[in-house]
Specification:
- Helix 25 links the parallel strand 11 and strand 12.
- Helix 10 crosses helix 13.
- The chain is flat.
- It contains 26 helices and 13 strands.
- Among the domains are: about 90 residues, Orthogonal Bundle (Recoverin, domain 1); about 90 residues, Recoverin, domain 1 (Orthogonal Bundle); about 90 residues, EF-hand (Recoverin, domain 1), CATH 1.10.238; about 140 residues, Oxidized Rhodanese, domain 1, CATH 3.40.250.10.
- About 55% of the residues lie in helices and about 5% in strands.
- The strands form five sheets. Strands 7-12-11-8-10 form a five-stranded parallel β-sheet. It has a two-stranded antiparallel sheet with strand order 1-2. The chain has a two-stranded antiparallel ribbon with strand order 3-4.
- It has about 600 residues and is of the alpha/beta class.
- Keywords: Calcium, Metal-binding, Repeat.
- It comes from Micromonas pusilla.
């Protein structure tokens, strides 16, 4: 081998060693830097989309499907995120075949594309295609700015030469300032930069949305199309005005619009509303989802559903005066601002259980003190406030609910109204009736026909359950009830473990003899179940169920014609055609 060959090989080895040193990047350290740059919220883990961005950036031949499969393999603990240890192990394997130059180039390119600023010179460099960006956007903008500046300077020179702004004595006005070329160019570049152009476009978009919103707000409800009605209702539901609804609010809305849907079905339908996965639903997501749900519903049903939501929201936010105003406006069918004789009669009948004519006339006289058959809201408000002064908020709301007709009311009519008059009057005097959520036999029957899952919790004593039960009901425990002040129902309900039985139910129905114990247990169970499922008391209890033809069975599951009314004085409430086989033992004399 000659001297020149030896020298050439030595020089090549020296260059190779220098290149190797130049590209000698610590791979673990570099990958950690990328991990923390991708971990935008500093949670210590990165999610699938971030990992896909990383994988396809480091291995450009990898398809997105391959990257997703790779993510599943990398996510060892199956929590849908990748922590630093999982990430390092996988990335070191993935980049093993990359040369040092390729590795450094891709690391720096990835870091340049993340949101976090990377200032360490070991990792930072300008993205690819910066020259193209400069040539495509920056240079034309500067050139345009310079041309505009020259036109402005020339226009200013001509204006000054003409003396247009000079005063009558030939002096320059005190507020006159010459054009400052650099300031002019800087302001032009800023105002016409990509950021400012996007900002102006966004401002224009928001202004257009505000104008459109103002336009539909000025329309009457009946003039709005379906989308506008839903946007209007969204704004009413969004009480804090943050532009988004949480999941519980959406379940409430869905159930109000379409009461036939069970809780779980409503939750399933709403789970895809949140398109961006932020845990909230914005107005567009809400409108598009509800329009899809209601696309096969006729216009009358759609409008009724939206009005039901609006009324429910309005009622929830209203004070007592506003709720009375809702009643007044509902009764004022001709929107005259006064209740005429026919409207007064309807209101009086609604206020008098059983419709006794004498009481109805007295009620009309009480409402229309001056007898002119024209009652304004101010006249209406006074006696109504006086009459409801002794009611707590729950009792007041229950009374107002009764006065609202079916269309657009906040809640369904009181099921006690479907019971025989004496039975209904007895049930409604329970303190719990005005405070807990209730359900009637008709509604239970309707839900059963719709194949909804109903979990029945039997809140009666063992002696009562020994006579008969509703099939598949779950016993609450050793319930003892003497009076509302002397009972252990709430204690038993608070300690009962019924969560497994209630799992997946559309509604939990508490059942007692005539509704007393169930009314106490229902709110306790609702709190215990943390609102995961709606808990209601069956109005009239198992007696109402039995009277309506509901099946009851004995301890072995065999149908029986017997039901325990709870107390002797309630035996007369059992009116089923077939004779009740249960008899109280004769009292000893």
């Amino acid at each position: 081998m000659g001297v020149m060959d030896t020298l050439t090989r030595s020089t090549a080895d020296t260059v190779a060693k220098a290149d190797a040193k130049k590209w000698a990047m610590d791979r673990s350290e570099a990958l950690r830097v990328v991990f923390h740059a991708l971990d935008g919220d500093d949670s210590g883990s990165i999610e699938m989309e971030e990992v896909l961005h990383l994988a396809t950036g480091m291995c450009q031949t990898m398809s997105e499907d391959d990257a997703r499969a790779w993510f599943q393999e990398m996510d060892k603990d199956g929590d849908a995120t990748v922590d630093e240890a999982e990430y390092l192990e996988a990335m070191l394997k993935l980049t093993d075949d990359l040369s040092p130059q390729q590795f450094e180039h891709r690391i720096k390119d990835l870091l340049a594309r993340t949101n976090k600023e990377v200032t360490d010179p070991r990792w930072y460099y300008h993205c690819e295609n910066n020259r193209e960006y400069l040539e495509a956007e920056v240079v034309p903008l500067v050139e345009s700015g310079l041309n505009e500046m020259m036109r402005a300077i020339e226009a200013e020179r001509l204006r000054v030469a003409s003396g247009k702004d000079w005063d009558e004595d030939g002096h320059v006005p005190p507020d006159w300032r010459p054009i400052r070329p650099l300031q002019f160019l800087g302001e032009y570049l800023r105002e016409n930069s990509r950021t400012m152009v996007r900002k102006r476009e966004e401002e224009a978009r928001l202004a257009a949305e505000a104008a459109a919103k103002a336009e539909y707000l000025n329309r009457t409800f009946d003039e709005m199309d379906r989308e506008q009605k839903l946007r209007y209702s969204f704004d009413k539901i969004d009480g804090d005005g943050n532009g988004a609804l949480d999941f519980d609010e959406l379940v409430f809305v869905c159930r109000k619009i379409n009461p036939g849907k069970g809780v779980e079905e409503a939750r399933t339908q709403l789970s895809w509303m949140d398109k961006d996965g932020d845990g909230q639903v914005d107005q567009d997501e809400y409108v598009n989802a509800i329009l899809e749900i209601m696309q096969d519903v006729d216009e009358e049903t759609f409008v009724t559903g939206v009005k039901r939501v609006l009324t429910a929201v309005q009622f929830a936010k209203a004070d007592r005066i506003e709720k009375l105003k809702m009643v007044f406006e509902h009764v004022d069918e001709d929107n005259s601002g006064e209740l005429d004789r026919n409207e007064l009669t309807k209101l009086a009948v609604a206020l008098v259980p059983g419709g006794d004519e004498v009481k109805v006339r007295k009620t009309m006289k009480w409402l229309d003190a001056n007898g002119d058959a024209a009652v304004s809201f101010e006249e209406f408000k006074g006696p109504m406030i006086e009459a409801t002064e002794g009611l707590d908020d729950d009792q007041f709301d229950a009374a107002v609910h009764k006065l609202l007709a079916a269309e657009g009311e906040a809640v369904e009519p009181d099921p006690a109204d479907d019971l025989p008059p004496k039975f209904g009057a007895y049930v409604t005097q329970f303190p719990s009736h005005a405070k807990c959520k209730w359900i009637g036999v008709k509604r239970v029957d309707s839900m059963t026909r719709d194949e909804k899952k109903i979990c029945v919790i039997d809140c009666r004593s063992p002696d009562e359950r020994a006579v008969s039960i509703i099939k598949d009901s779950v016993p609450l425990g050793d319930v003892k009830f003497v009076s509302f002040e002397d009972n252990n129902v709430d204690a038993v309900a608070g300690g009962a473990d019924v969560s497994a039985a209630c799992e997946g139910a559309d509604v939990v129905v508490c059942v007692s003899a005539v509704g007393a114990e169930g009314g106490i247990a229902a709110p306790v169970l609702a709190e215990k179940l943390e609102g995961k499922v709606e808990v209601r008391n069956l109005v009239g209890g198992i007696v109402a169920w039995y009277n309506a033809g509901g099946e009851v069975v004995d301890g072995e599951g065999k149908p029986v014609e017997a039901v325990h009314p709870g107390q002797r004085r309630c035996i007369g409430f059992i009116t089923r055609a077939r004779k009740n086989a249960f008899k109280f033992p004769k009292e000893e004399k």
